[in-house]
Specification:
Layout: H1 3-25, E1 41-46, E2 50-55, E3 60-64, E4 79-84, E5 91-96, E6 100-105, E7 110-114, E8 130-135, E9 144-147, E10 151-155, E11 161-166, E12 182-188, E13 197-200, E14 204-208, E15 214-218, E16 233-238, E17 245-250, E18 254-259, E19 264-268, E20 283-288, E21 295-300, E22 304-309, E23 314-318, E24 333-338, E25 346-351, E26 355-360, E27 365-369, E28 384-389
Antiparallel strand pairs: 1-2, 2-3, 3-4, 5-6, 6-7, 7-8, 9-10, 10-11, 11-12, 13-14, 14-15, 15-16, 17-18, 18-19, 19-20, 21-22, 22-23, 23-24, 25-26, 26-27, 27-28
Length: 399
């Protein structure tokens, strides 16, 4: 089955699973339901069908689909409003995958939770999911983590990349591929390249070197590695184009990066317009999104992309069948289209499979798109076509 079809089938199955669980469970309650107007987030992160907000104090709250324990709250119940992760310490960062999550603690320890069918939690060869944060084994200290479809990667303080989980397309960067290939414990990425940031897509991984060069590895049949051809690679391979990036983000089967002058380049699968170049063509090397806009941050979902401009405006493009572009419609967009935000400015955006969340300049997290698993966070299991405030947040402080 072609990779594009595989990705679409996986997304459809995940959506159906979220809908079935929601129908069976209804709206969950319990003693850990947080009161309204009690939480202030400093950042937001989005996974397949769940999302998490991180406070300035390092407390993580998650909401949405929880079929594999990816919310880290000690159960498998979906949550349509944020619930506190069962963590002991403080996190300096979190990373969300398709159905698992990871958090980097203030002491550079990495903890993961959720599905572990391919060893993506890094806790050894046991397939059972973990419903609370569980330390990654191996004795390594990580400063950065990235969670992909079914794999995870981390960076040490020295810039060494380690990956684990499903590796059949080469996304672990260990020089090995093959059907069913996986690692249940961290293993070093080969190739002798050090990095200072990394991102994990559905079946590929990308990273930036200290001199801002981009490397990618893993599945490449849609061009998502950006190496000028559509082959897969099991070792880090330089992205074509001689560009310098300050941010790079991997999605379902496409990747986008931002240069230091704010230009957005995307490559890979473009059949839903997610590359933003006005076409539905795939690209195997970086392609400029638009000359009319520059961005300060960018995020790639399964088949859509969003970016924040320097004046805090938010634009999205690509697939929009559930309203994940936030423009009030269900229309596919081939070029960046401004989100209907009613004068809300944004400082960060995160795109998931079919939903999106953003952190506003007012300090409030908003989500939109598919809500069947509760991932909009507004207390209902309904879709939202425009940014909708996540429940349980402090009102902005100021005049």
């Amino acid at each position: 089955m072609p990779e594009i079809c595989t990705n679409r089938l996986r997304a459809v199955l995940l959506i159906l699973a979220a809908v079935v669980v929601t129908a069976c469970l209804g709206e969950p309650g319990g003693p850990d339901v947080i009161p309204q107007d009690t939480v202030a987030y400093s950042t937001v992160h989005v996974g397949g069908f769940h999302a998490c907000g991180l406070t300035a104090e390092g407390q993580a709250y998650c909401w949405g689909s929880n079929t594999a324990g990816q919310l880290g709250i000690g159960s498998f119940e979906d949550r349509p409003i944020p619930h506190r992760v069962s963590q002991e310490g403080a996190y300096i960062g979190v990373a969300l995958g398709a159905a698992h999550s990871c958090g980097v603690t203030s002491s550079d320890q990495l903890e993961c939770w959720g599905i572990n069918d391919w060893g993506q939690l890094g806790v050894g060869s046991r397939p059972e999911p973990e419903v609370v944060p569980t330390p990654v084994l191996g004795g390594l200290q990580f400063t950065v983590a990235a969670s992909g479809g079914q794999h995870t990667c981390g960076l040490t303080s020295g810039g060494e990349a380690w990956c684990w989980g499903l590796g059949e397309s080469g996304q672990l960067g260990d020089g090995t591929t093959g059907v069913g290939w996986f690692r249940a414990l961290p293993d070093s990425v080969r190739g002798g390249v050090t990095f200072d940031s990394l991102t994990a897509g559905s079946q590929h991984t990308c990273a930036l070197t200290p001199d801002s060069r981009a490397y990618c590895w893993g599945a490449g049949s849609s061009g998502q590695l950006g190496i000028g051809e559509t082959s897969s690679r099991d070792l880090p391979t330089p992205v074509a184009g001689n560009l310098f990036f300050f941010q790079i983000d991997g999605g379902g089967a496409h990747t986008c990066g931002l240069t230091f002058d704010g230009e957005a380049y995307c490559w890979g699968n473009g059949e839903s317009g997610q590359l933003g170049d006005g076409s539905i063509s795939n690209r195997d090397s970086p392609t400029l999104v638009t000359e009319s806009l520059t961005f300060v941050s960018i995020s790639t979902g399964a088949s859509h992309t969003c970016g924040v401009t320097g004046n805090s405006r938010l634009y999205c493009w690509g697939a929009n069948e559930f309203g994940q572009l936030g423009d009030g419609t269900l229309l596919l967009r081939l070029q960046p289209t401004e989100v209907s935000s009613d004068d809300i400015g944004f400082v960060r955006v995160e795109a998931g499979v079919v939903h999106t969340c953003g952190l506003g300049t007012d300090g409030i997290v908003y989500c939109w798109g598919f809500g069947g698993g509760g991932q909009i966070g507004h207390g209902e299991y309904e879709n939202a076509l425009t940014p909708t405030r996540v429940a349980g947040q402090l009102d902005p402080i100021g005049p």
